[in-house]
From TrEMBL, chain A:
UniProt family annotation: Belongs to the ABC transporter superfamily.
One GO term (biological process): transmembrane transport
Membrane topology, from the record: Peripheral membrane protein
Chief localisation class: membrane
Organism: Chelatococcus reniformis
Alphabetical keyword list: ATP-binding, Cell membrane, Membrane, Nucleotide-binding, Transport
Record protein name field: Peptide ABC transporter ATP-binding protein
GO molecular function, one term: ATP hydrolysis activity
ABC transporter domain span: 6-257
Any one cellular-component term (Gene Ontology): plasma membrane
From TrEMBL, chain B:
Superkingdom field: Bacteria
Similarity field: Belongs to the binding-protein-dependent transport system permease family.
Subcellular localization, as worded in the UniProt entry: Cell membrane
Cellular-component GO terms for this entry: plasma membrane
Transmembrane segments: 28-50, 94-118, 130-150, 212-238, 258-280
This protein's UniProt keywords: Cell membrane, Membrane, Peptide transport, Protein transport, Transmembrane, Transmembrane helix, Transport
Keyword Cell membrane: yes
Domain (ABC transmembrane type-1): residue spans on this chain: 92-280
Membrane topology field: Multi-pass membrane protein
Protein name stated in the entry: Peptide ABC transporter permease
Entry's Gene Ontology BP terms: peptide transport; protein transport; transmembrane transport
UniProtKB/TrEMBL annotation, chain C:
All copies of domain ABC transporter, residue ranges: 5-254
Name assigned to this protein: Peptide ABC transporter ATP-binding protein
MF annotations from Gene Ontology: ATP binding; ATP hydrolysis activity
Top-rank lineage group of the source organism: Bacteria
A Gene Ontology term for the protein's cellular component: plasma membrane
Topology versus the membrane: Peripheral membrane protein
Family from the record: Belongs to the ABC transporter superfamily.
Protein's cellular compartments: Cell inner membrane
């Protein structure tokens, strides 16, 4: 297999709080191949967004640190690379789309200004060329009447249109990896469908890899080739999308799927995972899902389980579930 | 209400670890708040302990005019032979008191005006136009006018500065009260039939005052400076009562020969203003949710 | 069955500035009618701007509608006598908010927040009140000592339990739930939905359950009304609506929801966006996006009419022709 585009190895992120350093993300390892589409799913506090930000080292300086781990991209470790190199990579090789299209655009600049900024910065285009390119990009993200819309200010655009503009900015330099952090969460369901469709089309047209972060298993199922499930700062399951939804192996993944209300089939009482999501600084011995797990055994309360392969590319962090195979 | 005696089978959900007094802890751990607090406490103690120097701040000994700082008179003496250290300490009582009272009065009255304007929309236009009117004069000119009208006494300085600093506080509280009154917990109280007065006192006021608290520390500092300015202009606290402002005013004619008469009260003013600003910065960092770190 | 809640021809327009000297109105609701019976849950689904939240606010008296009537427990809370009627029905009426962080006063201990409706009504002695708070905490599955704590000590799901406890303080008959689980994580969502269902069964509550999530509504509501741009386009029993949606918008909405099924053949995506309520389109408000639009849809407003027993749809496609 060819070398992966990005490779996360034991990435650990800590934040400073009133009570010292808190580990938000603990030993995350996975690869993203060229043209791969990885979905990262988890609830609040799972560390999914923190993981994404570490790919661009966008955490606030001084209040965050990386005690160990590497993010390898193009022969460099992004966690230790000089800020200048990172600035070149951000927006050009790795681009990002955020959840809130309202606050991601500067209200006093036109759409054209904001798209050209990236182009002029990374590609050194002159004003006129950048403008022409901006209109092309708006066309590419299916904004009707692009030549006119390009001079609008963000407040004239709907939420869905703004997210399209954000995507246009992100793909302006044809990045090799697009990180989309809950790109449709703030949008209505019909607009969400439009944006997901657009992302799918762009991904094929531009041949880029996508890392999609979402709390919504439905969005992940319809978009990703491979899914990484995170819980309380750790990867608990990593599998191809079909395998994960056909036969989830981690009790947390199972519980999550069972607690989702469905649109088809019989109407029954929902399964609810008991307890609550732990705080990042809460000390939990062994498996962090242990206290809420229906299948917890004695071993789960003592030893931190490892992420082990049980079948092909299906990896699970669960001692009882990996014991049978002993890990492959 | 018998139907409510039934218990739901679900086991009580476990609670997160206790997170009490988080604010206090953040505040106490805040560096500039610590420094500011220490400065202010020291100044306050100095003011309280002023009689310990054993010297009458107003006793004049012409024989001892303009003595430079020495063992006997650490801050020297002024043109009437009064001990400058003693006068600065007694002056602290007046200056800090004026600052404190002005901050408190303008804060309390400003909060009431602001929250009334936000909660009772019919009063809003009237109250805010009055505040606009007051705001349109430079604070020091307004104060100058009021003290001139009421006579140069400590009470008039307090009234003048309170009126001058009132509008800013009222506007601040009104702005945050306008946000708070639309929050869901206020709607919940309205749905339950709470009266506007109850909503104002129980929900809106307590949740709108944190920016004002920060503002009040700055008003405290401004008032000390403004009192000095007013006294310097001769309409502030009148001699022989010592205030930091009038000590400086009395020393200005001899500034070149007897620099110590102006230097030490000047330093005291700077220290007090610095301490209060640091305190205010600390309060703002801790109280302003926008400046809080992740989680 | 006498309806607890009776809404007829509800209209709501907010002033939204002025243009060329003429006041501009934002028509957020247009001729809305529905009933809710005792012990029943009506689900109100729609996207942003559909007017579902405004409807909820009108029903608890937070907003006065500009037209139409609302009867709660047989008393009209619109028109003259509104204040007196609201005061009379207030104790039987409650509201659960979307954001459990904004719904609790951060400076009040949880016990005080829960007891607020009791304190305002002034119906209980101090002892009774405190006993009641403990009873309510137990009812929503929180430890009894929660009363002395502050909201920030609780997680989102726990806060929503507190909000529900406050809503139940005076044992209401009708509760408006405005997106009660949409701010919560999936695993917390299921807990709160189950709690709301249990409480309904035990106390015979009626709910108006407002949500944008069709799957959540399906889990809780016996009847569902779908709103689009201020109008109800379809209302039916849950089984019928989800199995055979009649209105093209309901169909589009259902199709657009992503399913946790990677193999699903994705239906075509409906284009366009919700129209501006400042100048809603003539005729059917969905005609700008409808895949089955006809000439008639652009000029003539379709009326909500019975297409099958207990089922109403506002669409010209269903005129004369048997339901698809």
């Amino acid at each position: 297999m060819a070398a992966p585009l990005v490779s996360l190895d034991d990435v650990t992120v800590q934040f400073r709080t009133d009570r010292g350093w808190t580990t938000a993300v603990d030993g995350i390892s996975f690869d993203i191949a060229e043209r791969d589409c990885v979905g990262v799913v988890g609830e609040s506090g799972s560390g999914k967004s923190v993981t994404a930000l570490s790919l661009l080292r966008l955490h606030a300086r001084g209040t965050s640190r990386f005690p160990r781990g590497q993010v390898r991209f193009g022969g460099q470790d992004l966690l230790t690379a000089p800020e200048r190199d990172l600035r070149r990579i951000r927006g050009r090789d790795i681009a990002m789309v955020f959840q809130d299209p309202m606050s991601s655009l500067n209200p006093v600049l036109t759409v054209c200004d904001q798209i050209s900024e990236t182009l002029r910065l990374h590609q050194g285009l002159d004003r006129a060329t950048a403008r022409r390119r901006a209109i092309e990009l708006l066309d590419l993200v299916r904004i009707p009447d692009a030549a006119r819309r390009v001079d609008d200010y963000p407040h004239r655009l709907s939420g869905g249109m703004r997210q399209r503009v954000m995507i246009a900015i992100a793909i302006a330099c044809r990045p090799r990896l697009l990180i989309a952090d809950e790109p449709t969460t703030a949008l209505d369901v019909t607009i969400q469908a439009q944006i997901l469709e657009l992302l799918r089309e762009l991904r094929t047209e531009l041949g880029m890899a996508v890392m999609l972060i979402s709390h919504d298993l439905g969005v992940i199922a319809e978009f990703a080739d491979r899914v990484i499930v995170m819980y309380a700062g750790r990867v608990v399951e990593d599998a191809p999308v079909d395998a994960l939804f056909r036969s989830p192996r981690h009790p947390y993944t199972e519980g999550l799927m069972a607690s989702m209300p469905a649109l088809e089939g019989g109407i029954t009482r929902l399964y609810a995972i008991p307890g609550r999501i732990p705080d990042p600084d809460e000390a939990i011995a062994g498996c962090r899902f242990g206290p809420r797990c229906r299948h917890a055994e004695a071993i789960c309360r003592v030893a931190v389980p490892e992420l082990l392969a049980i079948e092909g590319r299906h990896r699970v962090r669960c001692a009882p579930r990996t014991r049978a195979t002993g890990g492959l | 209400m018998t139907e409510l005696a039934l218990a739901v089978p679900a086991a009580p959900a476990a609670l997160a670890p206790r997170r009490r007094f988080r604010l206090m802890r953040r505040l106490v751990g805040h560096r500039s708040f610590q420094i500011g607090l220490v400065l202010l406490v020291l100044l306050t103690f100095a003011a309280i302990l002023a009689p310990l120097t054993g010297i009458d701040p107003s006793s004049m000994k012409v024989r001892l005019r303009f003595r430079p700082p020495s063992q006997a008179f650490p801050f020297g003496t002024d043109g009437f032979g009064r001990d400058v250290l003693t006068r600065v300490l007694y002056g602290a009582r007046v200056s800090l008191w004026i600052g404190f009272v002005v901050a408190l009065l303008s804060g309390v009255i400003g909060a009431l005006i602001g929250v009334l304007a936000a909660q009772f929309r019919s009063l809003d236009a009237l109250l805010m136009r009055i505040m606009d009117g007051l705001m349109s004069f430079p604070a020091i000119l307004l104060a100058l006018g009021i003290t001139a009208a009421l006579g140069p006494r400590m009470e008039s300085v307090i009234i003048a500065l309170t009126v001058a600093y009132l509008p800013a506080g009222a506007r601040l509280v009104r702005a945050s009260a306008l946000v708070v009154r639309e929050l869901d917990y206020v709607l919940a109280a309205r749905i339950a039939g709470a009266s506007p007065l109850r909503i104002m006192l129980r929900h809106i006021l307590p949740n709108s005052v944190s920016p004002l608290l920060v503002h009040m520390t700055f008003v405290f500092a401004y008032s000390i400076l403004a009192e000095a300015a007013l006294s310097f202009l001769g309409v502030g606290v009148q001699p022989p009562t010592a205030s930091w402002g009038n000590i400086i005013a009395e020393g200005r004619d001899y500034a070149t020969e007897a620099w110590w008469v102006m230097l030490f009260p000047g330093l005291a003013i700077s220290l007090a203003a610095l301490g209060l600003n640091l305190l205010g910065d600390g309060l703002r960092d801790v109280l302003d949710p926008r400046l809080k770190g992740p989680g | 069955m006498e309806a607890l809640v009776q809404v007829r021809d509800l209209d709501m327009a907010f002033p939204a500035g002025s243009a060329r000297g003429q006041p501009v109105l934002l028509h957020v609701l247009h001729k809305l009618s529905f009933d809710i019976g005792p012990g029943e849950t009506l689900g109100l689904v729609g996207e942003s701007g559909s007017g579902k939240s405004t409807t909820g606010r009108i029903l608890v008296g937070l907003t006065e509608p500009t037209g139409g009537s609302v009867k709660l427990f047989g008393r009209s809370i619109t028109g003259p006598g509104r204040r007196a009627s609201l005061a009379a029905v207030r104790a039987r009426l409650q509201f659960v908010f979307q954001d459990p962080h904004a719904a609790l006063d951060p400076r009040l201990r949880v016990g005080h927040s829960i007891a607020e409706p009791i304190d305002i009504a002034g119906t209980h002695s101090r002892r009774e009140r405190n006993d009641r708070v403990r009873e309510l905490l137990e009812l929503v599955g929180l430890p009894r000592d929660s009363a002395d704590r502050f909201p920030h000590e609780f997680s989102g799901g726990q806060r929503q339990r507190i909000v529900i406890a406050r809503a139940l303080a005076l044992a209401p008959d009708f509760v408006v739930c405005d997106e009660p689980v949409s701010a919560l994580d999936v695993s917390m969502q299921a807990q709160i939905i189950n709690l709301l269902m249990d409480l309904q069964q035990r106390m015979g509550l009626s709910y108006l359950f407002i949500a944008h999530d069709l799957a959540v509504v399906r889990a809780v509501a016996q009847r569902v009304a779908v709103m689009y741009a201020g109008t109800i386009v379809e209302s039916a029993r849950r089984e019928a609506l989800y199995a055979q949606p009649q209105h093209p918008y309901t169909r589009a909405l259902l199709d657009a929801v992503p399913r946790p099924d990677p193999g699903r053949a994705r239906p075509p995506v409906v284009g366009g966006e919700v129209p501006s309520l400042l100048a809603p389109p003539a005729g059917c408000r969905f005609h700008t996006r409808c895949p089955h639009v006809m000439a008639r849809c652009r000029s003539e407003v379709p009326l909500l009419r019975e297409t099958a027993p207990g089922r109403q749809t506002a669409c010209h496609l269903l005129d004369g022709a048997p339901p698809a």
